Amino acid sequence: MSFLGLDFFESKQTKKIKYDAYNNLYFPYGDKQKDKIVEILKELTNISSKEEILYNYIVVKQELMNNDIKGYNKEELKVLVNKLNSSLFNKDSSSIPYIVLALEDIIIDSNLNYSDINELKSKINAWL
Questions:
Q1: Greater confidence, 48 or 4?
Q2: CA 82, 84, 17: angle at the middle one, nearest 5?
């Protein structure tokens, strides 16, 4: 039985395959990568909920991946930032920390050597 694209009677094996594919798309280096992203974003945002951070992060990363941002200039990225800010974030938060981290994450390798917090804050401030 399917409703709105959701299959309520999928087997556990099918659900696991879909979950693993989803996880590999956004976190190709597994839980270690996911935990590192949450740790960094807790320091960069005023959000402490792991679920909220991951939801926001996945939405931002998906948008960046869907828009092939590698060819974007700064003005085009600002349009994307404004779109994300208006659709996902309230006046007290911003998509910029998520975008800055996602841009690093798209090219990160298995060592997960993200920039340190001060360097990320500098990159964020350059956007403001």
A1: 48
A2: 160
